[in-house]
Amino acid sequence: MQKKKTNILLAMIAIVVAGTAATTPSHPTFRNLKVLPQDISEKQLDSIMGTYNTALKVNCDFCHSKEMNAFPMNTPTGRLDFAADNNMKEEARKMMRLTININKTYFNQDSIKKADHLLNVVTCNTCHRGNPFPAHE
After folding, report:
1. Is 13 a member of any domain?
2. In CA terms, which of 6, 47, 89, 110 is 20 to 30 Å from 124?
């Protein structure tokens, strides 16, 4: 009798675990993406962020704020809160929209497929060239 109860319990646990695994998305869900697609893969997101780091010669904490501890009050944890908004992230979003709009408007305006080298003619590096705050000319 005890063995039967154990087997039933193990079967129920297996069903719960299998159900959880089946409903877990195959890709992570990122919070607070406002310009990038919600279903972006982690590899794609990391690649894009790495491109920004290189073009501006900055680290992730240039745009992303540090997580804060509740106790002691408002002390940084050392980890970044990638979902939190701040002024620099809003500026970065404006720049992302700007480059997307320029490329779409001026380099992909017709229905004829463009050559691969024309798909993203304008990038962050076009203006920034390794400077987080490019000079205005």
Report:
1. no
2. 110
pLDDT, tens only, 47-78: 999 999 999 999 999 999 988 887 777 777 88
The Cα–Cα gap between 79 and 58 comes to: 17
More confident residue, 121 or 130: 130
Report the distance separating Cα 68 and Cα 37, nearest Å.
27
pTM score, two decimals? 0.69
- 12 belongs to a structural domain: no
Contact 123, 51 (CB under 8 A): yes
Residue 64 CB contacts under 8 Å (≥ 6 apart), including other chains: 80, 81, 82, 84, 86, 89
Range of the domain at 74: 32-128
